[in-house]
Design brief:
Largest sheet: 9 strands, mixed
Shape: globular
CATH architecture of the largest domain: 3-Layer(bba) Sandwich
Number of helices: 11
Distance between the termini: 36 Å
Number of strands: 19
Strand content: 25-35%
CATH class of the largest domain: Alpha Beta
Structural class: alpha+beta
Radius of gyration: 21 Å
Helix content: 25-40%
């Protein structure tokens, strides 16, 4: 996101988005405001983690429980990036297991199981640390055309065959309105193993738990330079960390810290609006079972109800990484395309942020050296997979699980030209996928 000030459409409060949480519905409903100190000295640690989002904090949680001394740094606040401003959809699935079928069925099954288990891993964390984050069960993926409905049928067959432990239920044209009050959809699939939650309260709760267990967290502490070696030196604005292991978890905001990782991802801007509270009756008219909802378009719409019955409506906006103008106006049009009866509803919040998209749409986990690890590129589907990534990286550091080696079998493309090329590539990709969505809509 561009370093500038934006304002909340309800409170008109000016927020410095370079270091503070954007003026979102989530920021306005934080359970507990806890600020962590800046690093202003030279310290040592077993592990240093750059990035205090879901990936970084959950890696730290897993490591501290194994007895490691861990320090987490972030250039802004805990959950400042995508972890604290996303759609809050807790969706099962880690990556496309069919990409791994070339390495044998055993490998494909093991990768698929990561996705089957990742939402449950989030639930376990919430329960273990008693985190209040408005967790609701249930997710329905909706189809706008026959091509998309066929995709859902095929996915159900695959997941049932592989042994998914939760119920997947197909919904046809005669039933869809019992779940989503829109005439746009011809059917869908309900996943009882997925759901939705307040993402910023989740990551803040996890950070508090990690800190209580002994993890040192430093906010407004930007990593400026990395010097690899048997011990890695991470230089910051006013201090440094010397660590046996380093984890890079900056994701879409890795910036110039590691050009190789930056070239492996493409920025995509995703935006969300939050309506005024709708009340119980009106909320049930649009999402009767209080599930998270997402369509199958590449340039997709996703939405859900908040705990106070607002509609949180989001969509992929552009593939340039630049913050769009008039978020509320543009997303309001998309919202009314789905729910035209909400034309009298006020928009109270509007915000945006970047997600890191990969060419293969597969999260990128691996090593840069023997003791420098990374995880990034969840392609807009990161709430649950980031938690599994934290477990995978922690177990790679402790030499307990070789899943990071399995995931590294897929070779990720580095785009030439850095930010300029990836932004251009994503803009062209936007046009391509819009065309694909249009063609599918005519089927």
């Amino acid at each position: 996101m561009l370093s500038k000030k934006i304002k909340n459409s309800k409170t008109k409060e000016m927020v410095n988005t370079e270091t503070e949480h954007v003026a979102s519905y989530y920021a306005a409903t934080i359970n507990e405001h806890k600020n962590y100190p800046m690093l202003n000295e030279d310290i040592t640690s077993d592990v240093c983690i750059v990035g205090a989002g879901f990936t970084g904090i959950n890696t730290a949680l897993n490591l501290v429980k194994k007895g490691y001394k861990v320090a987490v740094i972030d250039s802004a606040r805990v959950g400042w990036g995508a972890s604290g401003r996303n759609g809050g959809q807790l969706i099962s699935g880690f990556t496309y297991s069919n990409k791994f079928e070339q390495f044998g069925e055993e490998v494909a099954q093991s990768v698929w199981k990561l996705g089957a288990d990742c939402s449950d891993l989030v639930r376990e964390t919430i329960k273990e640390f008693d985190i209040d984050c408005d967790l609701k069960e249930g997710f329905i993926e909706v189809a706008l055309n026959n091509v998309q409905m066929d995709e859902l049928v095929e996915r159900k067959e695959e997941w049932d065959r592989r042994g998914y432990q939760h119920n997947l239920t197909l919904v046809d044209n005669s039933e869809i309105n019992d779940y989503v009050g829109s005439s746009n959809y011809i059917g869908g699939m309900i996943d009882s193993g997925s759901g939705h939650l307040h993402p910023l309260n989740l990551v803040l709760g996890e950070a508090k738990a990690a800190n209580n267990l002994g993890v040192s967290i430093y906010e407004k502490t930007k990593a400026l330079n990395i010097k690899p070696g048997k011990e890695v030196l991470i230089e910051t604005d006013q201090g440094s960390i010397r660590a046996k292991h380093l984890v890079l978890a900056g994701n879409a905001y890795i910036g110039k810290l590691n050009p190789k990782l930056r070239r492996m991802i493409m920025p995509s801007n995703s935006c969300i609006i939050a309506t005024e509270p709708l009340g119980d009756e009106r909320a049930k008219e649009i999402i009767a079972k209080d599930m998270a909802v997402c369509d199958l378009n590449t340039i997709l719409d996703y939405y859900r109800l908040s705990s106070d019955k607002r509609l949180l409506f989001g969509g992929r906006y552009n593939f340039s990484g630049n913050e769009p103008k008039n978020i509320d106006q543009n997303l309001r049009k998309r919202m009314l395309n789905v729910f035209p009866d909400l034309d009298d509803v006020r928009i109270d919040y509007a915000w945006a942020g970047n997600v890191a998209v990969t060419v293969h749409r597969i999260p990128q986990l691996g090593r840069l050296t023997d003791n420098i690890f990374y995880s990034q590129g969840y392609s807009g589907h990161g709430v649950a997979p980031t938690h599994m990534a934290g477990k995978i990286i922690a177990n790679a550091i402790s030499n307990e699980w070789d899943m990071i080696e399995t995931l590294s079998k897929i070779k990720h493309i580095q785009l030439p030209g850095g930010k300029w090329f990836s932004s251009t590539a994503m803009s062209l990709g936007l046009l391509y996928y819009r065309l694909q969505d249009f063609i599918a809509s005519k089927s």
